[in-house]
Amino acid sequence: MVMAKTSFKLGKTSNPSMSKEDLSKLVEKKAYELYEKRGKKAGHTMDDWLEAERIIKGKLSK
After folding, report:
1. Widest pairwise Cα distance in the chain
2. Sign of the C-alpha dihedral, residues 20, 24, 25, 29?
3. Number of structural domains, the chain?
4. What's the per-residue H, E or C state across the chain?
5. With bands split at pLDDT 50, 70 and 90, how would you rate the model's confidence at 16?
6. 35 lies in a domain?
7. How many other CB atoms are there within 10 angstroms of residue 6's CB atom?
8. Quick one: pLDDT band at residue 61, thresholds 50, 70, 90?
């Protein structure tokens, strides 16, 4: 699966009642950014996803 390179930032204006689908899309985009940053090396899918969740949820809780 090939995804377009994306970058996003979340600020204090983020909607705290974001749907699970929207949250999942943000995590997916961030996980792909982490994959790209690592040189697109396979074998770290779960690590990328979990790190992306941590990052996104951290930004949403601010």
Report:
1. 35
2. positive
3. 1
4. CCCCCCCCCCCCCCCCCCCHHHHHHHHHHHHHHHHHHCCCCCCCHHHHHHHHHHHHHHHHCC
5. low
6. yes
7. 13
8. confident
